[in-house]
Structure formats: structure tokens, C-alpha cells
Amino acid sequence: MPSRSCPRLALLALAATLALASPPAARACSVCGCGDPQLDASDPAAASGRFRLQLASEYLSMDAGTEGAPGSTDHLKQVSLRADAVWSPAEWLSLLARVPYVRKDLTTTGPGAQGPGSSLSGLGDAELGARITLLSRVDLGRGRSHGLALTGGASLPTGSNDARRGGERLDEHGQLGTGSFGPYAGLHYAFSQGDWYAFASVTGRFHTVNGFGYQYGEALLWTAEAQYRLGQRVAVSLGLDGREAWADLDHGLAVESTGGLVLAASPAAYLSVGGGMWLGVRAQLPFYARLRGEQSVGPVLVGGVQYQAL
Predict the structure, then answer these.
(1) Do 56 and 40 meet the contact criterion of CB atoms below 8 Å apart?
(2) Domains of the chain: which residue ranges?
(3) Which of 113, 122, 174, 281 has the highest CB neighbour count under 10 A?
(4) Tens of pLDDT, residues 142-171
């Protein structure tokens, strides 16, 4: 590997991180996410012919007021194991695929609590995406590069959305999948010079109505991140992730305690262990929230490993 290559900084800083790490905004967070949905594709080291495999685990928890039961609160804990593949057949194109395995534990406390809650494990909603470079400029004299790209993709309804207990369908947000398609599109800008790499993105995401008349709210997602390489084996980064989400709709009516604004700081650290393997940890730490109804937010932790094939 080149010893001082700035693109390698991006590999260190973004490898082993999965795109959908999301600071929770209660109900909507499990679908809309927060920040760039193609974070793992931001690696400019993905030159022509490069292929990367990533495996990461994510933990999050969230609370939200129970729909139709004033005074009650839903508590959701979610652990995900996600496999990603990123392939760049050309310098101007990156293709992404993600398959998640999800465990969701949902309980309700308060006057509206009924039964022991739910606990489900299985395949979640897979995602496909692409990034197409629109403009690329390199200043060899200054060792500086700029790039502007169009991003797009969609989540697919591969996760179960009709789990039941005692004949009753479980709460929408306790289901493993959304039961709907979730297309998104956006713009991504990247800058690199020396041991520094930075990028910013903005993305809009939409969800179709599922078979039970439920529609997750549209969302505007954004990320700004700066990364710095420390020596040959370590890199650190700090980012700002955000999401402004509209309320979910149930048969066309706004759902209480869904949607709102979340801002989160996203520190990360990465280590090369040789042989094309990289280890990484990343956190999203919400520091500001303006949410609809009764909602609470908490940190998200992601740890993973990436292998890059030349």
C-alpha cells in the first residue's frame, strides 16, 4: 500500500463502517437513519477493479410514546449484523449491496402495556445503491483533489413485516422489515489533500406504503466529516450527522411520536491489521433533538472489519 496516500486515509476512516448506522429518533430512526446512507462508498481508494467486503455489528435503543395509548412508552432495543459489498468497476462508479440480520426486542410500559412484548430475529431489509461521479478535478501540484457525485439506491422489503403473537400483528416498529421500498437520492462532495480527507453529502429518502397501510416518513439526511491519518496504521475522524424526518402515516393519518430533527457527533478510529484487513469503531452521539411527541434519543455504536481485494 502507498505509504502516504490520502485515498488510503479514506479507506482507514470509512472501512469497517456501515452506511446505515443511525442515531435513534425513536420510531422513525429504525428506518430513516441519520447521516449519509452510503458512508461506506465514500472511500476514494476504491479505484477501478477494487472490491471490498465489510462485516459490522450495530447496537441502538430508543423510546417512543405508544400509539393510541397515552401515558405508555414503547422501548426498542435493536442489534444488527450487516454484510456489505462495494465494487468499483470504474473510477466513476461504485456499486453497493447490504444484507442485514436483525434482532429486535420491543416492550411497552405504562397503562397501555399488554403482555411481555416481542422479540424477533431474522433477515432485515436489504439495500442496493450506486454512486456515479459527475465531476472530478485533481491538482497534482498541490496534491489536492475534488469530486462531486450523484448517489442513489433503495431498501428492499426483504424483512418480515407480518410477525404475530396470539393472532395479533406486532407493532410496526417491532417488525424486522418495513414491508415497503425505500428509494433515496442525493449529492456527495469529497476533498482530499495530504493526510486529510473530508466529504459532505445530502440525501432525500422516501418510503412507499406497505401492505398494512403504514408509511414511514420522508427524511432529509446529511453528513459532514473530516478524517486525518496518524502514521501508517491508524486514522481518526470526526463527523456531524443529521436527519430531518416527517411524521409516519398510518392509513394517511400522522402517527404520534414520529419524526423530527436529530443532530449527532460521529467520532471514529481505525486500525490496519495487515493483509488487507482493517478494524474500525464508530459512534453516533446525539447532542440536539427537536422531535414530535414523546421520543428520546441515545447513542449508536458500530464496530466492524473490512477486507479489500485488489
Answers:
(1) no
(2) 6-309
(3) 174
(4) 778 999 999 999 999 999 999 998 888 988
